[in-house]
């Protein structure tokens, strides 16, 4: 397979600064690697520029963006969409719309085990706990399951999301995220319901309602919480997605980020992007919690948007020329990696 590779060292994405706000790094594109298909998920090897990428064609890809001419290594993995990836050190774990969790040897990239983790249902997301002791998966059976990440042994199931929307249509469980201390896991669904569970016991400790993430139109549900992220201090929980529209009804969509003090359930931040036509597919906090970045995916006119947490304001909007479905920050938040429609990206974040 031939892969087109372009390396750009001076290109700055257009950034719209909002006056009166503190400075935020600009985005300098330093690598862009073409990989066929829609790239839906990414996992980074800590302390490196190495990425594993999953696509809508069932393939997995490995690229080292530190190479002068990065060349992807690709192999068949799932039947179709690779919707989640997690790297444990010993294993790469992939999740797909084919109901499977697959463990891969991280050195040889050979299959170690495959589990039908959510029978006959799309696995929408997976997450590895910060302490490395837990793997969570969520799927369209509306169940969150915990696994031992090294052995694949099932630990427990957590049930508490409604299978049907208020209109009686099938719902989806899109997102999951662990707290920084690994003691809690949050799960978010299509109708704006977020549940927070105690990891060690599976006890449901909090429910948060975010109804702006849900709407009904054209005979089917739309919107939904597509991504969740805890703040580094574990006090806040951010949800990203859109007010109206999904991959089949984008017109008029408004990307949305809401942040909550999850223990009280109080909404602390509300960022509705009024003039756009896309979904926030992934959100990430700065390691010190000073800002949050959200990536625009399905739709049009996509942007990478930085939000100031303290001032509750948009800092910058960086225009994108493509869809971005997943993003990863490095440990110092000086490098941002992204994957999207036919490309993997590496940006340097500079003051």
Describe this protein's structure.
This protein has 351 residues and is mainly beta. The chain has a domain at 18-25 and 94-330: Methylamine Dehydrogenase, Chain H, CATH 2.130.10.10. 0% of the residues lie in helices and 57% in strands. The chain is built from no helices and 29 strands. Strands 1, 3, 4, 5, 6, 28 and 29 form a 7-stranded antiparallel β-sheet that branches. It has a 5-stranded antiparallel β-sheet with strand order 2-27-26-25-24, with no helix packed on it.
Summarize the structure.
With 351 residues, this protein is mainly β. It is built from no helices and 29 strands.
User: Tally of extended strands?
Assistant: 29
CATH H-level homologous superfamily name of the domain at 18-25 and 94-330: YVTN repeat-like/Quinoprotein amine dehydrogenase
Class of the domain at 18-25 and 94-330 in CATH? Mainly Beta
Order of helices and strands: EEEEEEEEEEEEEEEEEEEEEEEEEEEEE
Count the DSSP helices: 0
Strand content range? over 45%
Structural class: mainly beta
What is the mean predicted local confidence, pLDDT?
A: 89
The geometry reads as globular
**CATH-scheme architecture of the domain at 18-25 and 94-330:** 7 Propeller
How many strands, which pairing sense, and closed or not: the largest β-sheet?
Answer: 7 strands, antiparallel
* Poorly predicted sequence stretches spanning 5 or more consecutive residues: 1-22, 245-249
Q: Which range best describes the helical content: under 10%, 10-25%, 25-40%, 40-55%, 55-70% or over 70%?
A: under 10%
Radius of gyration: 19 Å
CATH overall fold name of the domain at 18-25 and 94-330: Methylamine Dehydrogenase, Chain H
Determine the N-to-C terminus distance.
38 Å
């Amino acid at each position: 397979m031939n892969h087109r590779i372009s390396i750009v060292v001076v290109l700055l994405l257009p950034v719209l600064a909002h006056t009166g706000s503190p400075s935020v790094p600009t985005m300098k594109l330093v690598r862009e690697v073409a990989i066929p298909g829609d790239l839906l998920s990414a996992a980074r090897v800590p302390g490196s520029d190495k990425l594993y990428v999953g696509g809508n064609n069932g393939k997995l890809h490995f690229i080292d963006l530190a190479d002068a001419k990065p060349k992807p290594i690709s192999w068949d993995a799932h039947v179709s969409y690779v919707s989640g990836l997690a790297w444990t050190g010993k294993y790469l774990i992939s999740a797909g719309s084919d109901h499977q969790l697959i463990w891969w040897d991280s050195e040889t990239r050979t299959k170690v085990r495959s589990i039908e983790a959510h029978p006959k249902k799309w696995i929408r997301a997976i997450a590895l706990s910060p302490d490395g002791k837990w793997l969570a998966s969520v799927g369209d059976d509306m169940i969150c399951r915990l696994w031992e990440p090294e052995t694949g042994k099932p630990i427990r199931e957590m049930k508490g999301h409604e299978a049907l929307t208020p209109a009686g249509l099938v719902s989806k469980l899109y997102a999951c995220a662990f707290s920084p201390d690994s003691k809690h896991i949050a799960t978010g669904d299509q109708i704006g319901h977020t549940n927070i569970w105690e990891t060690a016991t599976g006890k449901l400790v909090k429910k948060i309602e975010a109804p702006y993430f849900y709407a009904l139109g054209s005979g089917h549900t739309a919107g939904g919480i597509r991504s969740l992220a805890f703040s580094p201090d574990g006090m806040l929980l951010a949800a990203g997605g859109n007010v109206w529209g999904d991959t089949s009804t984008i017109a008029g969509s408004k990307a949305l980020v809401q942040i909550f003090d999850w223990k009280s359930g109080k909404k602390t931040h509300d960022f509705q992007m009024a003039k756009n036509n896309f979904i926030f597919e992934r959100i990430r906090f700065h390691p010190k919690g000073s800002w949050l970045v959200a990536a625009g995916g399905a739709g049009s006119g996509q942007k990478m948007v930085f939000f100031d947490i303290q001032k509750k304001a948009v800092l910058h909007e960086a225009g994108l020329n493509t869809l971005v479905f997943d993003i990863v920050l490095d440990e110092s938040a000086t490098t941002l990696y992204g994957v999207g429609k036919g490309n993997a990206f590496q940006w340097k974040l500079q003051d």
